Amino acid sequence: MAATVAAKPELVQISTAYGAQKDGSSVLPRNKYTAIRDDKPRSKDEAQRPEFKVCKFTTGAIITEGSEVGTIHKVCANPACPIHHPKQSTSRDEKWKAEQEKLRREQAIANATGLRVLSAVGAAVPVRLMKRDLLFVLEKLTSLTDENRLAMLARQHGIRQKRDEGGIAKTFGAFLRRADEGTLSRLLVETAILLAASRTNVTTVLRDAASVYKVDTEAITAKVKHEFAAKEKGKKGAQANAKPAKKAAA
Predict the structure, then answer these.
(1) Range of 151's domain?
(2) Residues 108 and 171 placed together within one structural domain of the fold
């Protein structure tokens, strides 16, 4: 068997036993492939069974574990094969897509909620320090802030970067020097939150900031979820209206 595997490395190694594949093992268990039968089907119904069909993924395989070790067979080991794994593949794809969509939606809601909370906290910051003090502290803090978080702050304050302005850091620095004390005070707290969030749990940082500035995070979260639900409902309604229109045109 070892000599056969060495001579034909393209052969897929399979086992006749069911179960999970062992860690680091290249041997496929019985539930990971469909064995293609060499004999001819005895009826039309039998001919429709997957094991009597050959697909573009059909390849040679050698049994290295279980019964009939050393024998060579034809198998399909591709889980995406529409002939040998149609229902299983579709089910897995749909489940994976649903999970990814759920994660994407939850992340989008979390991001939107976080930005709303950050904005509410910033709006609650009073004017205390002089402009030179605020500017000095902010310039030092923003120098430690990565480009993505600077871009988030820029969007919060309607800063639009042009291609010839030398990057977001330069654009943001120019904005700081023009800003008034109230805006700088707000930015100081927002920057501190984002900088802390980059080194620890963002939810915890936002919750602490919301507590200090008496921001109702539950109300903001509920509003964001309601807005997302309304958008999704609108998309579904638009898709439903588009289908009858296409049929009528046909």
Answers:
(1) 89-239
(2) yes
